[in-house]
# Entry
Amino acid sequence: MLASVSVTALTVAAASLMAPSAVLAGDFNSKYTAAGAYMSGDFHNHTTCADGAVSVKTLATQSMVNLDWFVHTDHGGAYPRDCRFDDFAYDGPDDGQGKLWEDTVGKAAIKGDPAPTTTSNTGHNANGTVRSAQQMWRWQSLQEYQFPDLIERRNALQQPIMAGMEWVVPAHEHTSTAIITGQYAAVPNVNGQAQFEYCFAVNSDDTSGGGGQGWTCEITNADNDKLRTRFGAGKSDQGTGDYNSTLGTKGINIADNGEHVKSTAAVYWMQEKHAGAAYAVPAHLERAGAFVPGQNRGYNIEHLRDWNNAAPDVAFGFESQPGHQAASNRGEYSADRSPNGSAGQFTYGGTGCYAAAESAKPGYDFDGKALTAADFGPNGRFAGIPSNANPTGVTLCKPGVRTMWDAMLSEGRHYWFFASSDWHNRGNFAPFDKYSTQDFWPGEYQKNWTFVRKTSAGPAQDIVNGLRSGNNFVAMGGLIDDMSFKACTANACATMGETLTVNSGADVTVTIAVHDPNGTNLSPYSFNNPALLQLGIKQPINKPMVAQIDLIQGDVHAPYTASANPDAYKDPLAPATTKIAKSWNFPVKAASEWKTVTYVIRSVTANKYIRVRGSNLPAGTPNKRDADGNPLRDDIGSNNIKCSDPACPAHVNGKFEADIEGWSDLSFFANPIFIQIKGSAS
# Structure
């Protein structure tokens, strides 16, 4: 790793290392009109505020090289490093050479209840022993240090830069959040986001009211009654249903491990206090496996349904395509991730199985047979899963399109697909090096392309409105940089996130156009893609082409409820009507950069949705795609494809992994269009 490399040397070297080809020049402002345009952004990333390697200003500046808008997050809780400073030599939680809050602002300036001291991220004393340091609560570092630096960058670059938080969620994996209230005020503030962090992060154990700001964490009686109705008034395996009763005299509950009820109260709180100005998007939600009562692990579909029911304007999507796309196990998903393995064990084409494959119910196989400990370990049916895994915490997945996401869409839920970089560092390499064994900078590899219209509400609100609308597509590695996806009758059209109302029996014409840019992307590799070489296709890694587009279609039925449909409410498998309606292959790059295809859905008599995915790898690519183009588990490609070109970098040791796999296996996803029969239930 980088512990022996001096910070000074890395700082000097930064200018001569990775320099993306895009130019920072206010693209957002040129496209920000009432007519609207797709704008690229990232809302999940890290700095020395938590466990990243660069400062707030460095991250914001570098991110805006390739993005139109940017939300800086970082984990909640408490951390020791001053995030106004870089720590390029940081190599994980056991080391670092950054500056510490207790040295820069002094222990007396650290507010709230004393946070625990830590040896994590602190570096070493002169005698070589690990240093212990005082931590600062993240609500304070956000308000007083992180946000002012973001404002400075926003003003200097004249680009939309906002603050969010990667929420450490009671009972679950992390969630990307933002509350934009106040961030563009005459006197900008981030008080709403800071209070949310104080109240609802499982690792925020401060009870000071925000250092004397008078914060309490109750929700309205009406919403608390909804929790009692859903979960019961007492204690269950989902938490204490009467959330407000848990708050105590200081108005906060910090005994919240396994408290799915508290996490649901949190999205109620967001919608109550910051309606239209907040979002909560679960991040890398497959990584920690299934939900386990009393612990803080993963999500099952019922938890996503609970949040979406509680606060549909806040909990309107998920980040099923994780960051960490250059890690040796993409997304940091693996079968042996402690304690129960990731859901689906690995990613599928770089995307989690909740959006890219089919999920069985947690604790069961696809035949409905309960998993047991005998199924795991070297002699089990699923040998890669640790033998000590809790069977109820294991989720199996397989290639296909009846995904958990499709199960949500099949209820007509406005629930959208997102991706983000989850930038921390470049693993074995310096932050500005061209290689990576961990992460890509925001905008270097993954982009959320969100349709943003200019209104009097201002850019922050317009961006959040765009995210909530669902008019958003995601692309890896610059595979596409624009698209149009429409469903039309003779009289009307709808695009992503919208509903087309039609007469029963009408034909619907679907048009998909994607812009597949000529030239190179930001990959440093120009040798032929090892995955495509298996098919005899010679295509440079840094010149990817769209090889396949799939139109996926499903029927829409009435939403399930936990009371009336308890089994269906917990079933992550989409209905059997979910299918690939049409696929298109592009063996040779057309002269035009635009690829346009059409398809007619004949005589529509039932409510439906349609969505689009595409890839640079065609159906049947060995070890990467099945015969229908569904992505296979990424460990299959890593274990069976070789990187044998003389230019293949030493850090992959001839394997198809790390950034080689990331740049070689690309995809894009478009959010759905709903088709509703006139007069039918919405």
